[in-house]
Every structure is written in structure tokens, then in C-alpha cells.
Amino acid sequence: MPPRGVEDTLARFDEITARLDGHVPTRPAARAHVTRVGKKLANIAIAVMAVIAATIGFGLIVGPIGWTGLFLAVLAIICVLVFFSVFPRERAPKRVQYNEQLPTKAVVQQLGTLLNHRRTALPAPAAMRVDAIGQQLPLLENRLAEMDALDPLAQDARRLMGKHLPDLIDRYEKVPAAYRSQRDGDGLTVDERLVASLDAARVALDDIGARLHKQDIDAFETQGRFIESRYKDGGPAGSE
Questions:
Q1: Which residues of 50-81 are buried (b: 16+ CB within 10 A; e: fewer)?
Q2: DSSP codes, 129-174
Q3: 116: part of which helix (H) or strand (E)?
Q4: Is 154 exposed, middle or buried (0-12, 13-18, 19+ CB in 10 A)?
Q5: What whole-number distance in Å separates Cα of residue 48 and Cα of residue 53?
Q6: pTM to 2 decimals?
Q7: Positive/negative CA dihedral, 150, 154, 160, 163
Q8: Per-residue pLDDT at 2
Q9: Which of 61, 162, 48 is nearest to 114 (CA)?
Q10: What is the Cα gyration radius of the chain?
Q11: Where does residue 43 rank: exposed (0-12), middle (13-18), buried (19+ CB within 10 A)?
């Protein structure tokens, strides 16, 4: 079968999100997550080393700490582990409501921040799709920034990244966990519908990226053919 066009893929994505919306009864990515975890572990290590250094210093300067001092040191380390496991709490990123005047760079970066922040609250299959979408964003950001904002392809991409995907995740999180195992008219649970929706979004972004690359490739081919016909075998450069 021929690959879907961007319009068909976006239409399918809209259909999926509409179904998810009706089903609601009430309620770049892995790398950023690893970075946050690494920073937290580094803070824990520094704090634990500080407790150990203070304990050793007390023993050398004041005198033996004894069992009581050892107990207090262990208790301090436990408090450090508990504190850094809970705090600092990660604040939800502030999101600017999407509008047609919002710069493309802001649209893409805002989606990237949203995906990084929300991925841990999603089921594992959905988090994998979020990571795949996050890997597409840098290239799309650079290329779309060069396009006219009124270009239909750029508008489709902006709308998908700035409105449809954030709305999808917002609507998913409003569904209480107890209801996410219920199946809809297509036999899918809320989690399965989320994965299907993210797959549709990823395909749509792939299609958009392919079209953008096709434009670049066509422009390169045209320029190459012009240079070849102009300067190869008897052209101006060869006649000098």
C-alpha cells in the first residue's frame, strides 16, 4: 500500500483523539529523564559524603563517637536519602496556550519539555513512543523555523505539536487509573488508545519530515543539474 499522506495521517490522529476524548469518564525525552536522575544521585552522594566527613572529623577532633554517634550518623544518612528521594519536587512546566502567532521554536521546545516531564506518568509502551517523538523534534525545529508560517505543511506540523499532542496527554491524565482498563467500541483500553494515538502522531511527524526532506532533495537536485549543464564539458568554465 502507498504511504499515507500527511493529511490522511493527521485525520486519523484527530479521529483517535476524538474517540479518546469521548471515552473519558472523568479525568528530547529519556535523556532528560536520565539527566534529572543523575543530578539527584549526585546530590545524594554529596550529602552522604558530607555526613561521613563530619562524623570522621568529630571523631578525630572531639573524641570517639561511640555507638550513639554511629547511630546518629546512620540516621542522618537515612534522612538524607529520604529527603532527596522526595525533594526537590519537580515543578510542572508552564505551558503557553497554543495560537497561530506562537513562534515555531517555542511550539517545538514546549512540546519537548512537556514530553520529558510527563513520560514517567505514562505506561511503558507509551513512554517509548514519546521518546521516539522526542527524537524527531530537533530536526523538525530547525527545518520548520526556515519555512513560511503560512505554509500548509508547517501549519499541520505546528498544530500537531502545539495542540493535538499536548491535548492528548492532558486528556489521558484526566482518566482515573481505575477506568483505564475499560475497553471502548474498538476493543481498546485507554492505555492502548494512547499508544495508538502516539503511533499516529509519530507517523504524521515522519511524513512531515519526509516531505521537508523531499523539498530539500529536489532543490539540491535542481541546483546540481544546473551546475552540471552550465559548467560541464564545454560550459563557461571549460571554455576559459
A1: ebeeebeeeeeeeeeeeeeeeeebeebbeebe
A2: HHHHHHHHHHHHHHHHTTS-TT-HHHHHHHHIIIIIHHHHHHHHHT
A3: helix 104-118
A4: buried
A5: 9
A6: 0.57
A7: negative
A8: 40
A9: 162
A10: 27
A11: middle
CA atoms within 13 A on the CB side of 149: 8
From the DSSP assignment, how many helices (H) and strands (E) are in the chain?
9, 0
pLDDT tens-digit profile, the chain (240 residues) = 444 455 555 555 555 555 544 443 333 444 555 666 677 788 888 888 888 888 888 888 877 878 887 888 888 888 888 887 766 655 655 777 878 888 888 888 888 888 888 888 889 999 999 988 988 888 888 778 777 777 788 888 888 898 999 999 999 999 898 888 888 888 889 999 999 999 999 998 888 888 877 877 888 999 998 898 888 766 555 444
- Cell, residue 176: 482515573
Q: How far apart are CA 90 and CA 99, in angstroms?
A: 27
User: Residues for the chain: how many in total?
Assistant: 240
C-alpha cell at 145: 523555523
What is the distance between the alpha carbons of residues 180 and 172, in angstroms, rounded to a whole number?
A: 9
C-alpha cell at 131: 521518546
Which cell goes with 123?
Answer: 505506561
Cell of 81: 536519602
